[in-house]
Amino acid sequence: MPMGWFRRSKTHRQMALIGPAVLFLAVLMLIPIVLMGYVSFLERGEFGGVRWSDHTVDAYVAFLFERDFDGSLQLNTDYLQIFLRSFWLSIGTTVLTLLVGFPTAFYMALQPPRYRNLLIFLVTIPFWTNLLVRNYAWILLLRNGGLIDSALAWLGLTDAPISVLYTPFAVAIGLSYSYLPFMVLPIYASLEKLDFRLVEAAFDLGADRRRALARVIIPLAAPGIAAGCILVFIPSLGAYVTPELLGGGKSLMIGSLIQNQFGAARNWPFGAALAFALLGIVLLAIVIYLLRFRRSPGEMT
Amino acid sequence: MGGGNPLWRFVGVRPTALFFFVYLYLPIIVLLVLSFNENRTATIWTTFSTQWYAVVLDNDNIMRAARNSVIVATSATIIATILATLAALGMARARFRGQDAISATIAMPLVVPEIVTAVATLLFFVLIGLKLGLLTVFLAHTVFCIPFAYLPIRARLEGMDPALPEAAADLYANEWQAFRRVILPLLWPGVASGAMLAFIISLDDFVITYFVAGAGATTLPVYIFGMIRIGITPEVNAISALMLLVSILFVSLSYLVGRLRR
């Protein structure tokens, strides 16, 4: 307990210190989220906004059905498709970042300590730079006549423009790029603690590389891998900037759909319901992670 | 790490790591280089020129947006850092019931997807009838700046030798004196580091600002988004490069300050 000097004072002193921050977050974060849940059960207003007195589950029905002119409900999978696309793009992004991130974290963990800190710093810098700007840079790289296109044409590898920008593939590249540090850092944190003598021992006992990796390294790095996957999956699922800038009309994701309800579509209850559903998926992912991996290091097998 | 370095046994690790760092920095470097391109067509290199920086700095709309960004980031940083420092001091004492819940509340802005926070915050401001503008942007920014300021401060407190304040008490310092003379001097690098992180996070935020800014409170990222929507121009390259450099400057400073005498 580092703050021994405080030991004699009373608990209410402690509460007075913590109170303002918690109160601030409760008023401007917790209450708004509860309110958002409430709004999702309201009737939409004629010109945007909501009718505070009329309650309905229309917003949730609208996710799967659309009302015909005669009032009957027709199945409409447009929104479901957008959710599924976001889901698969986020899974794809998570896999891509894992494939690149794991070896990178492994490499970093095996560097001399002084060099490691520099590498961590290099991994974190892009995270702190503007997301919008980083994604814009990918437009410069990916567009026809851009750097990658010109380079490929110059090398004679392609004879037509690559036309990658404004496709789901471009979105996956952008998302992977945006959230790669979130994959590398937790895996690095668990690999750094790994005693590499265990790996040596596995080799001495006749394990080949694949077995040493599957039986020793990956199980020991599992909490970091899981944390990395969660940290990449969550922001990918709710991404707005990347699909807006790098995706075309055919790679619409949840984020843009939500924004649209507060812009052109003027359907606030539906927007609130979509955001609420997104939050639900995210919380579910976190709960699964906590149940599976939140144990003290000693308990881990 | 004992024994021989097992890296050599895993083919492909080194090239992947190299690929990773190239992937991470290539877009940033390309953007910085192109921002000095004289050509009107944003991606075709002709000669070195700083003219687009001059064009950007001469643009009234950009400067107005930049001023809004700095006003919001400064005020949100100050309030968030104060709240975070107090909370970190409170949390650093003996464990108590509900501490996990409080940690979770403080971390909430990091966990909830930005777009959800944006929607919820917008609805809240509309409900309480607060007109969208710089004030709403400031309030929304303070919320997500709190955890970014809190974490380095908390880490600094965790790493502090508990014997130091006790020694101060033994030397007849009262609690305030012990805080002023012992804790605070040791804590300030954490506070400064947290404040700088909060500042760049606020300066760079787009999604939440986009929702709660309203018409009059355009910040620089919101303005840049509008510019990108219209087209790829050398002006966008220049202003983007400037934002990158400011972020890199602040994060480097934060890193250096955070590492001061531990």
Topology:
The complex is a heterodimer of chains A (about 300) and B (about 260).
Chain A: H1 11-39, E1 42-44, E2 50-55, H2 58-64, E3 65-67, E4 73-75, H3 78-109, H4 113-128, H5 131-142, H6 147-154, H7 168-192, H8 197-204, H9 209-237, H10 241-246, H11 254-262, H12 268-293
Chain B: H1 13-34, H2 51-57, H3 60-91, H4 99-111, H5 114-128, H6 134-158, H7 163-170, H8 175-204, H9 207-212, H10 220-230, H11 234-258
Helix pairs in contact in B: 1-11, 2-11, 3-6, 3-8, 3-10, 4-6, 6-8, 7-8, 8-11
Q: What ranges of chain A have pLDDT less than 50 throughout 5 or more consecutive residues? A: 296-301
- Domain tally of chain A: 1
In the CATH classification, which architecture of chain A applies? Orthogonal Bundle
Task: Give the H and E element order of chain B.
Answer: HHHHHHHHHHH
Outline of chain A: globular
Largest sheet entry of chain B:
none
Q: At the fourth CATH level, what is the homologous superfamily of chain B?
A: MetI-like
Low-confidence stretches of chain B: none
Distance linking N and C termini of chain A? 29 Å
Write up what this structure looks like:
- The complex is a heterodimer of chains A (301) and B (262).
- Chain A has helices at residues 11-39, 58-64, 78-109, 113-128, 131-142, 147-154, 168-192, 197-204, 209-237, 241-246, 254-262, 268-293; strands at residues 42-44, 50-55, 65-67, 73-75.
- Chain A is mainly alpha-helical and 301 residues long.
- Chain A has a two-stranded antiparallel ribbon with strand order 1-2. Chain A has a two-stranded antiparallel sheet with strand order 3-4.
- In chain A, α3 (78-109) packs across α9.
- Residues 296-301 of chain A have low confidence and may be disordered.
- With 262 residues, chain B is mostly helical.
- Chain B has a single domain (53-258), classed as MetI-like (MetI-like fold, Orthogonal Bundle), CATH 1.10.3720.
- Chain B is 74% helix and 0% strand.
- The radius of gyration of chain B is 23 Å and the shape is globular.
- The mean pLDDT of chain B is 86.
- The interface between A and B is large, with 96 and 106 residues.
